[in-house]
């Protein structure tokens, strides 16, 4: 496991003067501004250096703080409501003065430090040269800060690292402490700095600061002693100490927020050491620190920090507590992620005579010899609503190790997927935890005790919990007991463990009451080898909803419903919640296990909306609000389908809407008519219901709650519909179809989902709404005699044994809008989409990287008519014909689209047309496709209409007669206002009764000695054999002087249904610029000037542009170069249009205006008080 991120930091200036020179330097007296601000700027030129403005900035922070300390010691302090603020510009600053009392006007060499002064606040990361001058400006626009406080006097430190910890070199002369804060400092604050390279290596001596003895071995980055400054927006790194590498705090209650503590090192507390204090640590990243004890945090002697919204990750401790080590301390840990830390004892957390409160927290991927997640030694932490997952111990206790009479209270907690030699979930040694409403599942051991191992008289009490699906190589898949251990199980479930449920040694005697224990009653008689039957136990299948996908909710006919004993429950049965946050008591009698069956009838709200949230906690689950959300989409759709089948339909003008929050949802019910209340395993599917509309991508936890909000779209971070019901990562045993739409569904819609993992690999069919659905087609979506709308959705990584890996449509007419269909596979036809007798409207859709093993990598059309508009069909493949599109007796309209980089082994890399197909292709670019013949288009007994289309850079492998641009067999397409140029080998090949018609087009090599080559087809006039002068080999828009400009035929365009007054070209510009349309897919709109950055980053330097400074009639294009453009705060920039290409950036501090559009494919940074006027747009990829 790698514990350290390798980072490279560059000092902003060199420390070149001797300390003696600083000590004897005489400075002008400091004078704060009228707002009580001192300005510090390492790079100031001129000025008075009094500090009352940026122009008069003090060059060194050390001098500003020395003056402030002098004022304080002379009793000229600042009040808490009128603090002194010190603004520090970017640069590297060294502590120049001795921190010791009475010596702080001279250098103390390694005793130099920045000393905090009462009611003095330090703010860094200003950049006055670029207009970042006060707190209203955006100071944090880069990953780390550019104002650095460094203890490296010689600027020669460097770091090497091993697998577990760093080693710092050349730091022997470094300051012991970068920052010191002692005693009462009022509302002192440090904000916006890097704090690096302290070396507190002398724990045998002290320095007196504000009458406080400060140990030279403690707190290399920051040391607080009986002092509580606020620490925010700070990066603390590469500090080394005996104790507290990054921060050391004694009796401290600082507010520490939004900081990162990374790659620090010490013996105790690599990142942070707290001694007898209670700081608040919020939104902090503590990463890649190392120590002997407490790699991330070390809490000692009654420390009780509050830790929330924090990440503690990749830290290492040789002995105790890779993430956190608690010694006689009780921190509160809330909403925190503790992951991938490592130690001998307690990879995540080590507790010694400590009782921390841990809630709403994740311990993930931590490693130890004992206690991969948590190690408790004589400790009793409270562990509530915690996920302890994928931790490991090379010896005992993959999830938790409890030793020396530890008695933690574990409630509503998941202990899953942990591993160890013994005791995969929990190992108890002379310990007796209480485990309530929790689950111990899918843990694994090399030897014994997959779920639980109990040693030395341990007696855990396990109530309403599940010990399920754990595995041991030898004994006790669920539990193994040694040395007279006596666990008790009440209202619990032990099921599905291997090789056995429980194994007892050494007169151990577990007791079971009102619980389900698998194989406990063979032939109806209690198996005494398991332990004592205390009554009311059952031996049955608990009927979890979908255990393969880790859904352990109960089916409605589960035998554990209402079969627990209320009197055995040790909590508050009327007010407690179960593992998922629902009511613990749903009926009169409690259920067995951790999850209570919720028999709730959905109730849409007054706006006819049902809410679904996989992560809902509590509530009624009636679905009338986000707070009462239904946890599973399957249950909402089952209810809707039940109402539909009972003729309680919704009207088209009063549709039911189902809002679905982010999370992964798998279909839980059979798709078959009459079977949809039962689990059908691979036949499960989400079935669309008439006039029911599904909307996904909501995030109620972050106030993304309705359709006016910006939802998570096209993303696995949004609402995912997955066929991965087995949970094993193998697609070939997933659900056959993720979503089925069959029959009249009215205005049914799916909007805002990520659909993945469907595997239509069956050989049978099911009946859905009286239509036969073949489970070898349509892995992602299957529609038959139905026309649902598919909007704002991504359909990826689905497959089909026959047709339609992503989508299969039969006699349907869906609208597919703003959707991505990629990385799907069909073993026959239509890797992305298969259409049979269907009429789809496809607009703003990306169809890419799909594969049809036989025909139609992107789309296969059989007797179908599609409208494809503003779409990108790219990088699809097929072994047979039609890499992008295969048309069989089909006539799609393809408008303003891109068909590029598709490939096939046979013919028609971009498009393959056969059997009287007549597609109409307008304002489209067909480029860089590859095939044997017909690299761009292959026509056989078909005749395309091609208007204002660019066909270029396509390749046919079949030689000079293969037709890299177009190959025609018994076909006579019509080609108008189009460009066929730059295709490899031959542009057009005609075979057997083929005679295409050309007019107002550029066709390369179309003349011989100035005479039209009749082998190409018929010259209907105004054709050109010329270089169209594309911008470059990847940009097919026209350069100034192109022969294609104003050479088209307006009538040809309008006769094809075009509107010259309102249509746009492929780039989104007006289709007509001037009086005559251009040839090709792009209309020329004036001169372009390209950014080179040859001189500097200033937008207004003409020499940085190829054709001079942009103006309101010039198009500005910004490419990725070394110097990227900046519009300064005092300037305004203008252009007709602006394009920022991938990898390029534009930073704006002043004014920016553009007449038409700004198209951003890179980074656009508006800093400070920048303003812009124009329309921000985004083109389809490759346009």
Automatic annotation (TrEMBL):
Q: Which InterPro entries match?
A: Choice_anch_Q_dom (IPR059226), PbH1 (IPR006626), Pectin_lyas_fold (IPR012334), Pectin_lyase_fold/virulence (IPR011050)
- Residues making up the signal peptide according to the UniProt record: 1-29
User: Does Signal show up as a keyword for this record?
Assistant: yes
Q: Which UniProt keywords apply?
A: Signal
**What PANTHER family does the record point to?**
G PROTEIN-COUPLED RECEPTOR-RELATED (PTHR11319), OUTER MEMBRANE PROTEIN PMPC-RELATED (PTHR11319:SF35)
Q: What is this protein called?
A: Right-handed parallel beta-helix repeat-containing protein
What organism is the protein native to?
Answer: Mesonia hippocampi
């Amino acid at each position: 496991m790698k514990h350290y991120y390798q980072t490279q930091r560059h000092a902003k200036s060199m420390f070149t003067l001797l300390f003696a020179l600083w000590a004897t330097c005489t400075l002008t007296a400091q004078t704060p501004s009228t707002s009580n601000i001192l300005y510090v700027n390492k790079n100031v030129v001129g000025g008075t250096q009094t500090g009352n403005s940026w122009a008069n900035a003090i060059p060194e922070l050390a001098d500003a703080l020395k003056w402030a300390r002098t004022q304080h010691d002379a009793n000229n302090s600042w009040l808490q409501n009128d603090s002194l603020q010190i603004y520090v510009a970017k640069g590297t600053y060294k502590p120049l003065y001795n921190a010791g009392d009475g010596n702080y006007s001279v250098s103390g060499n390694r005793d130099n430090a920045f000393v905090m002064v009462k009611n003095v606040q330090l703010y860094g990361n200003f950049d006055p040269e670029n207009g970042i001058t006060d707190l209203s400006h955006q100071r944090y626009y880069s990953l780390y800060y550019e104002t650095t406080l460094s203890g490296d006097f010689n600027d020669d430190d460097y770091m090497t690292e091993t697998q577990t910890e760093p080693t710092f070199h050349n730091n022997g002369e470094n300051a012991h402490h970068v920052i010191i804060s002692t005693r009462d400092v009022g509302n002192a604050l440090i904000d916006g700095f890097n704090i690096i390279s302290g070396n507190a290596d002398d724990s045998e001596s002290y320095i007196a600061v504000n009458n406080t003895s400060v140990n030279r071995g403690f707190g290399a980055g920051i040391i607080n002693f009986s002092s509580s400054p606020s620490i925010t927006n700070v990066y603390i790194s590469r500090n080394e100490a005996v104790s507290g590498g990054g921060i050391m705090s004694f009796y401290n209650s600082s507010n520490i927020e939004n900081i990162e503590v990374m790659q620090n090192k010490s013996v105790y507390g690599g990142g942070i050491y707290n001694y007898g204090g209670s700081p608040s640590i919020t939104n902090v990243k503590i990463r890649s620190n190392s120590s002997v004890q407490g790699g991330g945090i070390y809490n000692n002697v009654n420390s009780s920090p509050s830790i929330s919204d924090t990440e503690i990750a990749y830290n290492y401790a040789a002995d105790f507590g890779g993430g956190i080590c608690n010694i006689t301390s009780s921190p509160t840990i809330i909403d925190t992620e503790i992951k991938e830390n490592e130690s001998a004892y307690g990879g995540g957390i080590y507790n010694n005579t400590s009782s921390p409160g841990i809630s709403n927290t994740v311990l993930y991927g931590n490693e130890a010899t004992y206690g991969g997640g948590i190690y408790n030694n004589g400790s009793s932490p409270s562990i509530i609503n915690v996920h302890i997952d994928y931790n490991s111990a090379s010896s005992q206790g993959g999830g938790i190790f409890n030793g020396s009479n530890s008695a933690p209270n574990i409630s509503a907690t998941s202990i899953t997927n942990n591993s160890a030699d013994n005791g995969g979930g929990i190992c108890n040694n002379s310990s007796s935890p209480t485990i309530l409403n929790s689950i111990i599942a899918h843990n694994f051991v090399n030897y014994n005790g997959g779920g639980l191992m109990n040693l030395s008289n341990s007696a855990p009490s396990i109530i309403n919990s599940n010990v399920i699906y754990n595995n041991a190589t030898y004994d006790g898949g669920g539990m193994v007991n040694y040395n007279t251990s006596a666990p008790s199980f009440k209202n619990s479930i032990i099921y599905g463990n291997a090789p056995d449920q429980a194994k007892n040694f050494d007169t151990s005697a577990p007791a079971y009451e009102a619980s389900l224990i698998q194989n406990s009653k063979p032939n109806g008689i209690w198996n005494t080898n398991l332990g004592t039957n205390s009554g009311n136990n059952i031996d049955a299948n608990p009927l979890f909803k979908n255990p393969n996908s880790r859904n352990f909710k109960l089916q409605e006919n589960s035998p554990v419903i209402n079969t627990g004993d209320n009197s055995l429950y040790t909590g508050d049965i009327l007010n407690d919640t179960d593992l998922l946050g629902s009511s613990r008591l749903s009926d009169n009698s409690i259920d067995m296990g951790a999850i209570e069956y919720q028999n709730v009838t959905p109730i849409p709200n007054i706006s006819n909306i049902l809410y679904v949230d996989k992560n809902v906690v509590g509530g009624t689950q009636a679905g009338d609000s986000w707070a009462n959300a239904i946890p599973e989409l399957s249950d909402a759709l089952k209810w809707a389908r039940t109402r539909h089948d009972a003729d309680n339909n919704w009207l088209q003008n009063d549709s039911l809407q189902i809002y679905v929050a982010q999370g992964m949802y798998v279909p839980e019910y059979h798709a078959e008519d009459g079977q949809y209340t039962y689990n059908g395993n691979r036949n499960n599917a989400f079935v669309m219901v008439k006039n029911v509309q599904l909307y996904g991508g909501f995030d109620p936890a972050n106030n993304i709650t309705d359709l006016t909000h910006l939802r998570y779209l096209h993303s696995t971070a949004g609402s995912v519909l997955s066929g991965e019901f087995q949970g094993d990562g193998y697609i070939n045993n997933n659900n056959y179809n993720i979503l089925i739409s069959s029959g009249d569904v009215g205005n049914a819609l799916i909007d805002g989902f990520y659909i993945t993992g469907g595997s239509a690999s069956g050989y049978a069919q099911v009946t859905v709404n009286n239509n036969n659905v073949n489970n070898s087609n349509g892995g992602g979506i299957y529609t038959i005699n139905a026309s649902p709308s598919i909007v704002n959705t991504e359909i990826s990584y689905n497959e089909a044994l026959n047709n339609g890996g992503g989508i299969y449509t039969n006699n349907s007419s869906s609208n597919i809008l703003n959707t991505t269909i990629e990385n799907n596979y069909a073993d026959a036809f239509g890797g992305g989409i298969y259409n049979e007798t269907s009429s789809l409207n496809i607009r703003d859709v990306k169809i890419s990287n799909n594969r049809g093993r036989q025909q139609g990598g992107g789309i296969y059309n059989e007797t179908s008519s599609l409208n494809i508009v503003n779409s990108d069909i790219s990088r699809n493949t097929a072994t047979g014909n039609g890499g992008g599109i295969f048309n069989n007796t089909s006539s799609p309209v393809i408008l303003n689209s891109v068909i590029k980089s598709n490939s096939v082994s046979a013919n028609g890399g971009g498009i393959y047309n056969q059997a009287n197909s007549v597609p109409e292709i307008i304002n489209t670019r067909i480029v860089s496709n590859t095939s044997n013949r017909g690299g761009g288009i292959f026509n056989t007994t078909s005749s395309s209409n091609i208007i204002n289309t660019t066909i270029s850079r396509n390749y046919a492998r079949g030689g000079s007669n293969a037709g890299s641009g177009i190959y025609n067999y018994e076909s006579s397409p019509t080609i108008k206002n189009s460009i066929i140029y730059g295709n490899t080998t031959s542009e057009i090949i005609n075979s057997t009764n083929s005679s295409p018609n050309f007019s107002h087009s550029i066709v390369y090599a179309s003349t011989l000695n100035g005479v039209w080559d009749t082998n190409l087809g018929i010259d209907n006039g105004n054709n050109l054999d010329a270089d169209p002068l594309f911008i470059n080999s990847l940009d097919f828009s026209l350069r100034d002087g192109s022969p294609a400009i104003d050479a088209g035929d307006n009538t040809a365009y309008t006769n094809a249904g075009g509107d010259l007054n309102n249509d746009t070209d492929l780039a989104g510009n007006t289709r007509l610029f001037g009086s005559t349309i251009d040839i090709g897919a792009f209309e020329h709109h004036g001169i372009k000037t390209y950014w080179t950055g040859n001189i500097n980053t200033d937008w207004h330097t003409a020499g940085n542009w190829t054709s001079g400074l942009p103006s309101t009639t010039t198009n500005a294009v910004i490419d990725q170069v070394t110097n990227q453009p900046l519009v300064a705060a005092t300037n305004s920039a203008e252009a007709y249009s602006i394009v920022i290409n991938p990898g390029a950036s534009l930073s704006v501090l002043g004014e920016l205006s553009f007449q038409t559009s700004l198209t951003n494919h890179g980074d656009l940074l508006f800093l400070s008080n920048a303003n812009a006027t124009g329309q921000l747009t985004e083109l389809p990829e490759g346009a």
